[in-house]
Amino acid sequence: MTAAPATPAGFTAPTATELLADYAAGRRRPSEVLADSLAAIEATEPTVNAVVELLEDATDAASVADEQWSSGTAPADKPLLGVPVVIKEKHGIAGRPLDQAVPATAVTPEVDHPIVGRLRAAGAVLVARTTNPEFCAATTTDSLAHGVTRNPWNPGFTPGGSSGGSGAALAAGYAPLATGSDIGGSTRIPATFCGVVGYKAPYGVVPGLHPSTMDWYRSDSAMARTVEDTLLMHNVIAAQHALDPHSIPFGPVEVPKRSVAGCRIVVSETLGNYVVDDAVRDNLAAAAFALEAQGAVIEHRNPDWTVEEIMTVAMAHYGHTLTPGMADVIEATGAEVSPYTTQFIDHTIAAAARMPLHETFARETRIKEELGRLLSGATALLTPVTTKDAFLAEAPQVSVDNHGRHYWADLMAVPFNICNRHPALAVPTGTGPRGVPTGLQIVGNAYDQASVFRVGFALEDAGVGV
Fold it and tell me: Which stretches make up the Amidase domain (predicted)?
């Protein structure tokens, strides 16, 4: 069992795996654990500002879990019985308004989002909803509706976005599990800046809701404070779902070996021509050394693509698939939004006007072929998630500089949304000079989920990032 990492406050919050063992042994009760979660939230909010609302039915769910654990054994169909989880605001909960941090656009879903429904059915206790930026369209978590969400490790800096509230809540010890989503790094970026773990599964493995999940860059995600818990949660939320015709019948991910001895692992410090801070590179190198010490064969390779190529293709893609709908909703509702939202819409729609959709297909194909070449003969690729060790907490007022460069160009996650059949697991690597955690992403061959978790376990077992 993996030990729980310390929180910024200095205490150690239990992992989901530890809680389940304690429940079975009668050492803890779900209602007591829920009380601890609520106490942590009360002690830290609104300084971190990661919580949109507390869910009042959590107490009843914890009481039911108390009763079911009273025999010392959980029902087989409830693998998360009594485990607290926080839910990203964008993941709808039946009967509760859903607005993605833009109140004028609120709707009330009649059913839970598929992953919320699966967590509830597995016995998890839904504690709170966590913040995301407007329409999840930023890599910080800041909105007119909810204000700035801050990094528990250093409140002057962001926990990342768009799943920043979930990342911050995990780091602050509010719960051992959280939901995320990822269309341009929105799970992996907060995992990195918060010192936790986030998994972008291959497209279709985790069900979503149409029409948004028709976008082949998108994935809904498991986040946790350890690799073990992330895999536990992922195996609950994954697999085909009736509400998502694009979901596929994938079984649970099993990792028969945690050893990486003999595995060929590619390391790319700059992933083309990204300009990466020394602290991020140094911590990546230390992680690679830890794997080499366990018998892995490390190779340094670099893809033949540029940041400019990645961003040109991705921004055109978003302009064809994502932002026109955002623009229509804003116009129809008269919603007030932040500058980063309107600038993202304008920038991407202009990019789409310059590159027809069929051309994005051709350009994406070249990028996918290049990733295949990079991974040829290898178990996995290690590369940073972000170029910088920290970003300010507040969303940028100006998203595009005088050279037309969008601030997303400082994030190294987007290539693996373009190549979205490849799993990508973000894990911590240490701390940067401003006290904010750093991380890397483990990228596997298409649909090879077991390998990224195998490497993640090896890094965690070696104490990397602790």
Answer: 32-451
pTM of the model: 0.97
Q: What is the model's pLDDT at position 10?
A: 59
- Look at the alpha carbons of 424, 148, 36, 65 in this order and tell me if their dihedral is positive or negative: negative
As a dihedral over the C-alpha atoms of residue 416, residue 417, residue 419, residue 423, rounded to 10 degrees, the angle is 60
Give yes or no: residues 405 and 269 share one domain: yes
Kindly state whether residue 180 falls inside one of the protein's structural domains: yes
Alpha-carbon gap, residue 308 to 54, rounded angstroms: 42
- Do 268 and 168 lie in one domain? The reply is no
DSSP E strands: which ranges in 7-83? 51-54
291-316 tens-digit pLDDT: 999 999 999 999 999 999 999 999 99
- The catalytic residue positions are 88, 162, 186
Answer yes or no: is 255 within a domain.
no
Give the structural domain span for 226: 16-237
Please list, in sequence order, all residues whose beta carbon lies within 8 angstroms of the beta carbon of residue 178, skipping any fewer than 6 positions away: 85, 86, 87, 88, 130, 163, 166, 167, 169, 170, 223, 224
Residues 206, 269: one domain?
Answer: no
Residue 60: enclosing H or E segment and its boundaries? helix 58-69
Residue with tokens 């996995």: 380
Q: What are phi and psi of 76, to 5 degrees?
A: -60, -25
Tally of domains in the chain:
2
CA count, 13 A, side-chain hemisphere, 442 = 30
Give the whole-angstrom CA distance, residue 4 versus residue 70: 25
Same domain? For 204 and 335 the reply is no
| 138 and 275 fall within a common domain | no
- The answer, yes or no, to whether residue 2 has pLDDT greater than 80, is no
Q: How far apart are CA 299 and CA 357, in angstroms?
A: 36
The token pair that represents 122 in the structure block: 């597995």
In this structure, what CATH number is given to the domain that contains residue 303?
A: 3.90.1300.10
Are residues 233 and 225 in contact, defined by beta-carbon separation less than 8 angstroms? no
Q: Is 406 in the same domain as 326?
A: yes
Classify residue 272 as left (phi > 0), alpha (psi -120 to 50) or beta.
left
Q: CA 424, CA 412: separation in Å to the nearest integer?
A: 12
pLDDT in tens, 112-166: 999 999 999 999 999 999 999 999 999 999 999 999 999 999 999 999 999 999 9
